[in-house]
Specification:
The structure holds 2 protein chains of 2 kinds. Chain A is mainly alpha-helical. Chain A is built from 9 helices and no strands. Classes of the chains: A mainly alpha, B alpha+beta.
């Protein structure tokens, strides 16, 4: 894959990542601000849920990015195991933390929505439980990848874990279809949505804004990890002289 | 076969195994992972007596009756094929209403009625502004 290996050189990656980081960050921040303003003031309440419906503007993008983050870890893991891409291990580690944070945001906002809507903060239904498992798997990956990096590993052990963890993604997606759950079925498919357009429209803005912020955080973390590796290598060199 | 192709094959096999594992988990857990019994499950498999279970379905139109004591509510849960009468004493959730989804936690009585200790409202996947929805509210099935 020549296109991927164009970024194999950390110096070349940094040359692109450095100017890209603030662009992604500020664009994302502005879009999230617009989305929040629109979602809080410009859309009507739902006919049943009332104002609680507005939580979906945070909850749904957080859920998608929580799952999208693990897809990123899986892709990085494949790039590491198959092509030995030198940035893949760092990319997976960089994605893991924001992914876990978004999964946690999804769980917390869902719980806050569930109290007034369902009448409960938490129930062990298929969707809620599988999403909680994804959060735990993120935590395990973060610990494993850090331990592996600390003892000088090349990231192959966490990469295997990253691929195995993808088992949760279809389970989360189809839990509400295959099992009867307290959580409702999917509102948004590829071609249809059962959310009225008047309520739906800020959601893509929020999704894009959160995605750009996610990208900015990943780039910042990758740059920080590369800088750390560089400084450690320099310290080691100085110690041996 | 080069080493890289070998690794690619291995990873693809691993992904296929992961997908198969997900499918197996989803189908094998099946009823075990179900959050609630539907009235027709009970009609088919018999009453799960003597243990706390959840009963889910739609609140049948016109079935909600409030008792004179002010806290007890009687209603009928249906899944389109079978019905179960439910009794509950307590505060019902805001979204509890006729023709809407409900999950009741409690126990079956030997006569087939259900005594709930807790009610959860089940929301469907439809989101509408009030002027669009008007006074019409109906969830057709819990499968949605």
């Amino acid at each position: 894959m020549p296109s991927l290996h164009a970024f194999a050189n950390p110096a070349r990656f940094l040359k692109i990542a450095r100017p890209l980081t603030p662009v992604l960050f500020w664009l994302g921040a502005v879009l999230v601000a617009i989305g929040c303003w629109a979602g809080l003031t410009q859309t009507p309440p739902d006919y049943l849920q009332g104002e609680t419906v507005r939580i979906l503007y945070i909850h749904v993008p957080a859920a998608w990015l929580g799952m999208g983050g693990w897809s990123g870890i899986a892709l990085s893991s494949i790039a590491l195991l198959v092509w030995r891409h030198p940035l893949a291990a760092i990319a997976a580690r960089a994605v893991a933390l924001p992914g876990a944070v978004f999964a946690a945001i999804c769980l917390v906002t869902g719980s806050i929505w569930g109290r007034p809507t369902w009448g409960t903060w938490w129930q062990w239904d298929g969707r809620l439980t599988s999403m909680l498992l994804l959060f735990f798997v993120y935590c395990a990956f973060i610990a494993l990848a850090r331990a592996d990096a600390d003892r000088g590993g090349d990231g192959r052990v966490p990469a295997v874990f990253g691929i195995a963890g993808t088992v949760l993604l279809p389970i989360i997606r189809y839990s509400v279809v295959w099992w009867n759950t307290l959580h409702q079925g999917p509102s948004i498919g590829l071609t249809r949505s059962s959310i009225a357009p008047a309520i739906l429209w800020p959601l893509p803005i929020m999704l894009l804004g959160f995605s750009l912020l996610f990208g900015a955080i990943v780039l910042m973390r990758m740059r920080a990890m590369l800088a750390m590796a560089k400084s450690e290598a320099r310290l080691r060199r100085m110690a041996t002289v | 076969m080069t080493a890289k192709n070998q690794r690619l094959t291995l990873v693809l096999l691993a992904l296929a195994a992961v997908a198969a594992a997900a499918l197996l988990a989803l189908s094998a857990l099946g009823d075990q992972a179900a959050f609630f019994y539907a009235p027709s499950d009970v009609a088919r498999n018999g009453l799960p007596l003597g243990k706390a279970v959840r009963l889910g379905g739609m609140v049948e139109a016109g079935s909600v009756r409030r008792a004179a004591d002010g806290v007890t509510v009687h209603f009928v849960v249906t899944d389109g094929r079978a019905t179960t009468p439910v009794t509950f004493a307590g505060i019902v959730p805001d979204l509890f209403r006729e023709k809407s989804g409900v999950v009741a936690e409690g126990q079956f009585r030997p006569d087939g009625a259900f005594v709930a200790t807790n009610l959860l409202a089940k929301h469907d996947e439809k989101y509408m502004p009030p002027e669009l929805a008007g006074k019409m509210h109906e969830t057709k099935t819990l499968e949605q």
